[in-house]
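[scheduler] slot 2 assigned
[scheduler] job type: sequence-to-structure, two independent chains
[scheduler] chain ordering preserved from manifest
[runner] begin chain α
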Amino acid sequence: MNDTATLAESTLSPALAAADGAVVHVKGVKKRYGDVEILKGVDLWVGAGQFTAIMGKSGSGKSTLLGIIAGLEKPDEGNVCIMGQNLDGMSDHDLAGLRRRSIGIVFQGFSLIPSLSALDNVMLPAFFATEISAEQRRQRACELLEQVGLGERMKYRPGTLSGGEQQRVAIARALINDPAILLADEPTGNLDQETGASVLELLLNLGRVHNTALLMVTHDPDVAAKAGNVVQMKDGRIIDAHA
């Protein structure tokens, strides 16, 4: 999951939350690449504001599942519903609109545009948000950068920021459209232990403030220990899920 194409475009009418309170509902999802079956019938339910950690060894299907939930990949079988909307059959245009309105994504590798300032990187996903003005977009981006502790570094480009600061910019960018769901693929994986712990606390605090559901892939048991729900994956299946 490192596609900056998820950062923009399209419009879609607001989605309504599912009647059962789920912001993410995955049912019987299977995915193959050639002869290799990556996901083998995965079921997953995530409620509003819930922090769910997905754990498992490399190759267990964690990142593939996250990509399917984001609408970046299509399952071969099964269904994914986001905010009550079934992704099956949606056009690329409408999927991009759903991502823009309802899903924020934090990548392990930051995926910032080097030539843009921190402020411009944060504003980028809202560029096609016609319901807000350019001034409102800028104001919200400034507020988010203040919240992540980068109020004094808004004009800095990524190359002049530390790894932890770049990840904070990426988190602010993911929240610019006030998504109901935040997907994070090893967001602390490229950071030292102290910086990673700080970024995790920031994600959790912002999730509480914005009532955002956080679905995070991680190898770190200390990260998973802070989750309200922990999902264990092995060989393309969920083998355990517990609070």
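[runner] end chain α
[runner] begin chain β
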Amino acid sequence: MEYGNETQEAGCESQCNVLASTPIHNLQFTTPNPQTTTHMKTRFVYFDLGNVLACFSLDRLLQQVAEVVGCSREDIKLAYFEEDGIQQRFERGEIDTDTYYKLICERIGAQPDRDAFFQATNDIFWFNEPILPHLAALAAMDFPRGILSNTGPTHWAFCTEAFPVITEMLPTNHVLSYQARALKPQPGIYQTAIQTARNVVPGIQPGEILFFDDLPQNVQGAIDCGIDAVLYNDQTDVAAILTERIAALS
């Protein structure tokens, strides 16, 4: 899971607006304002997991893990995100869950209860309700779609179990960093995403793939690989973007 945008959690939470309670059959797609940029029509849509499908709180993670371990939040932050990059190695698929737990324990100099530790690290998410009508509209059309995310096996398992609507709306085409063994914004994971889309839509071009992500560097990395990527935040008019890009919604 990408931790580079700590301020995004508030924006993600603030999106819980009227869209979240709009019946799917009443969902209206509006025509976007004319733009100077011309986009190819979209034939496949990817959504990021963290802060797009499910919001998360880094502050909550640090606090909960510190309480379980019995040390400071700063110690936890150092163990997770600095020195040799244990978290990145885990999300890149270089180490498994057992090794990840062992290395974190060695780094913090303590061995907390394993179940309590993973509960503290995983229970930091809440479903982003405003995205649901858009997922449901695409699902109703059986429009080709998937997930493209930096994540590890424990966060993925937690989110899909806690929020089954994610895999109900996006049941296949999951390009996950720990399985792809590459992290956004590295080109490798985008190439995997392009190939995954081509397995579903033969002959699709990168510019026909639309991708929503909350981090500018990941959006730019996708654009550099030819993908039509959009920065997602609480001001993003997803309905207008889908209407502009998808012929069936125009």
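[runner] end chain β
[qc] chain β: The longest helix spans residues 187-200.
[scheduler] slot 2 released
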